[in-house]
Amino acid sequence: MGRWTQYDQDDYRLPEGMKRVGYDSDTGRYYFRDREGLLYKGPEGSEFGELTQVGELPTHVAAEADDDNDDLEAAPTRGSGYQPLAVDEHGSRHVLRGGAYRTLFPFFLTIAVFLLLIWRLVLLPTRTAPAPCPSTTIPYLVQPGDTCWDIARRHNSTLDRFVIVNPKVTCSNLHPGDRVCIPDEGSSISRVF
Known about the structure:
Layout: E1 19-24, E2 29-33, E3 39-41, E4 52-54, H1 59-64, H2 99-123, E5 137-141, H3 148-154, H4 159-165, E6 179-183
Antiparallel strand pairs: 1-2, 2-3, 3-4, 5-6
């Protein structure tokens, strides 16, 4: 309960026996009724002030204030403290399917793009292009099961010439997909490239 709940009521501001019965939004005036049933209107633009007696309520205010026992703040009518909701008995029921996911889709898309970007930039090793082979050699991609000796023999070369052309290749650590340079059959190979 709030600290100043007594200020939510009109009782402490109005003269004894007076009750607020309506409000005219066109003129900005509140209307009040006393114990004898006489009507009064307040000053224009303020809730309280000097009251002036009137004969009757304006028609649009009278329609709202026909029951004097109604709570002006529309207090709940059920014991649980909640106001019942207005229900359209004959209205069509439209079920939205996936409405919540429709609003979350851009969020999930942003997360997916971010994760793909991280995967591409951080987790995948960036492969640099291998150095081109010298003009007297041809490139060869290592196949599964290949050894340095097999590659050199298959291309009519010797293992010594193969090692001279590929000084950084370790024959015991040859992997499929690696690129090596193979000397041409008729070319003379020296140690200096």
